[in-house]
């Protein structure tokens, strides 16, 4: 009996040792889920040492097991303390603090960073950990728009990283230094530092978690200043990195969102929707609320542009519920539905609540468009001037395009047709440079309207036809419908609609995005009656769809 017990104990030890070896090997091969399973099994049978607990923590982080990540790192910290290895304990405390801050747990995060600082101060010699603890300080300075302090702090961290040969520290501090320069308006210098930081990232010289964090931060920084060519380059590199680690969950959803945003700009709406859907699937496993909210917003934007107003409304609301402001998209949706006052109030609120210059650039083009729609030219001019000032400061092709388009729209509304044509031509050239077909086509619509105001009907027709072709290819039904209305009006010379009061009532509800069933319930009529009214509306207006009827109502001020 005693021999059997010893044999079973030996086999058990052998099995645990084998799982531990396999866990280390899986981690080396970046098979994160396999590493997590093997290391978890080994830890359950016999508590892991500090180094292996760090491996378990890393694999847990990369497959989205945040609770296990924090617990394993906490235990590794304790093991290092017990062994008198204070620098290693401080490194664990740093990562715990940083991760908790990223997840919004400010109290615990600050506490762990304070513990890490105490351990570093107690060390008898200088160490790399002191440099790592400067990284969240630099982030705080960036958040407070103190770009000079952020730059100085990042510079000090780089010096420490170089002294101790810490590639993670050097690259992270370099990218923080670059973001600080961008905040100061030194765009080219800042982007160059981001590029330098990315050299080590793309060469595979950094730890996996730091690699993912820098990828995401650099791409976000490029997108904020509309350096879209760089954003696409680094997003493509991030995609390759993620695809090389198929078991990884962390960072993959964020990567898909970045891809979706750039695909949307380039007119690949179907692909953008598919990437957003995949990101949602990823985030059913990875509970990142911010990324989820961006996915919903991206889906809403495509739905809005395609004329799927109910689906857009639902997605905007989902984005809001997950913590993302659904503006300016929701305001633009309300405008195309004919609810101009609602759109104007929403976009005013969003602009007044946003102070960061680059964040305001997301809102200002829509602000100008909506203010013009409600005949508030003074506010439109103000928004246009602000956009022009920001474009001059940060000077990227996309910002120049946005500013020139807004300026052209305001000039056209104020009757300065010749100036409008010049501004719109600059906007068109800039949008083509960044390969943004939808925005280019929208500018051509304005150019067509300017040509018509100038008396050049043939030029107007050419611009509108060219824009219509692009909208049809993209599936932008409301824009196609609007051009059809503009073209029909020019041909007929009048805009009489001959609708009955009830049909006008139904048209306004259609334009609000309601289904025939919902309209029937609201008007206390049968759905069959509403179907008949809708059919009569389409026939009288000579339009083929609900989106076209909405565009007609909007253009002719019927709502």
Question: What can you tell me about this protein's structure?
Answer:
The protein has 559 residues and is mainly alpha-helical. The chain is 80% helix and 0% strand. The chain is built from 31 helices and no strands. The termini are far apart. About 1% of the residues have low confidence.
Categorize the overall geometry.
elongated
CATH class identity of the domain at 495-559: Mainly Alpha
Into which percent range does the helicity of residues fall? over 70%
CATH-derived topology of the domain at 495-559: Arc Repressor Mutant, subunit A
The protein's oligomeric status is: single chain
The CATH architecture category of the domain at 495-559 equals Orthogonal Bundle
Q: Give the N-to-C terminal Cα separation.
A: 90 Å
Q: Strand count, sense and closure of the main sheet?
A: none
- Structural class determined from secondary elements: mainly alpha
- Look at the structure and name the CATH superfamily of the domain at 495-559: Winged helix-like DNA-binding domain superfamily/Winged helix DNA-binding domain
- The average pLDDT score comes to 89
Radius of gyration, in Å, reads: 29 Å
How large a portion of the residues is in β-strands, by DSSP E?
A: under 5%
- Annotation field: number of helices: 31
Number of strands: 0
Low-pLDDT parts are 9-14
């Amino acid at each position: 009996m005693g021999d059997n017990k010893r044999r079973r104990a030996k086999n058990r030890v052998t099995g645990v040792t084998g799982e531990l070896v396999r866990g280390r090997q899986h981690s080396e091969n970046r098979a994160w889920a396999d590493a997590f399973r093997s290391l978890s099994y080994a830890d359950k049978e016999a508590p892991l040492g500090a180094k292996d607990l760090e491996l378990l923590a890393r694999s847990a982080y990369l497959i989205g097991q945040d609770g296990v990540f924090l617990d394993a790192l906490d235990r590794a910290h304790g093991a290092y303390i017990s062994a008198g290895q204070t620098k290693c304990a401080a490194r664990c405390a740093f990562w715990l603090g940083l991760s908790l801050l990223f997840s919004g747990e400010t109290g615990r995060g600050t506490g762990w960073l304070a513990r890490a600082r105490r351990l570093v101060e107690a060390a008898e010699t200088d160490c790399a950990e002191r440099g790592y603890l400067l990284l969240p300080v630099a982030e705080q300075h960036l958040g407070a728009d103190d770009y000079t302090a952020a730059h100085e702090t990042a510079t000090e961290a780089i010096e420490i990283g170089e002294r101790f040969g810490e590639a993670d520290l050097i690259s992270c501090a370099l990218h923080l230094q670059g973001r600080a320069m961008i905040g100061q308006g030194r765009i080219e210098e800042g982007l160059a530092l981001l590029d330098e930081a990315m050299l080590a990232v793309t060469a595979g010289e950094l730890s996996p978690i730091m690699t993912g964090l820098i990828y995401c931060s650099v791409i976000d920084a490029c997108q904020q200043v509309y350096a879209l060519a760089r954003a696409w380059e680094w997003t493509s590199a991030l995609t390759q990195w993620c695809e090389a680690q198929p078991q990884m969950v962390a960072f993959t959803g964020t990567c898909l969102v970045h891809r979706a945003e750039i695909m949307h700009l380039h007119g690949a709406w179907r692909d953008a929707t598919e990437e957003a859907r995949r990101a949602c699937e990823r985030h059913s496993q990875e509970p990142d609320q911010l990324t989820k909210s961006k996915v919903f917003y991206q889906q809403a934007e495509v739905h809005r542009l395609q004329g799927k107003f109910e689906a857009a409304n639902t997605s905007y609301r989902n984005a809001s519920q997950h913590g993302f402001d659904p503006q300016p998209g929701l305001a633009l949706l309300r405008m195309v539905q004919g609810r101009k006052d609602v759109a104007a109030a929403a976009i005013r609120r969003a602009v007044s609540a946003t102070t960061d210059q680059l964040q305001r650039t997301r809102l200002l083009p829509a602000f100008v468009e909506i203010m013009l729609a409600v005949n508030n030219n003074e506010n439109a001019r103000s928004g246009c001037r602000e956009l022009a000032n920001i474009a001059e400061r940060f000077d990227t092709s996309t910002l120049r395009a946005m500013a020139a388009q807004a300026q052209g729209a305001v000039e056209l509304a104020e009757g300065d047709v010749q100036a409008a044509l010049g501004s719109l031509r600059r906007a068109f050239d800039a949008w083509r440079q960044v390969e943004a077909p939808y925005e280019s086509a929208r500018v051509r619509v304005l150019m067509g309207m300017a040509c018509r105001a100038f008396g050049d009907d043939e030029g107007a027709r050419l611009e509108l036809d060219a824009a219509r072709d692009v909208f049809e290819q993209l599936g932008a039904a409301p824009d196609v419908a609007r051009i059809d209305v503009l073209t029909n009006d020019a041909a007929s010379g009048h805009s009489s609609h001959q609708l009955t009061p009830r049909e006008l009532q139904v048209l306004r509800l259609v334009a609000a995005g309601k289904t025939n069933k919902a309209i029937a319930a609201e008007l206390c009529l049968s759905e069959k009656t509403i179907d008949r009214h809708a059919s009569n509306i389409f026939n009288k207006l000579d339009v083929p769809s609900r989106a076209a009827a909405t565009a007609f109502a909007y253009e002719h001020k019927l709502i």
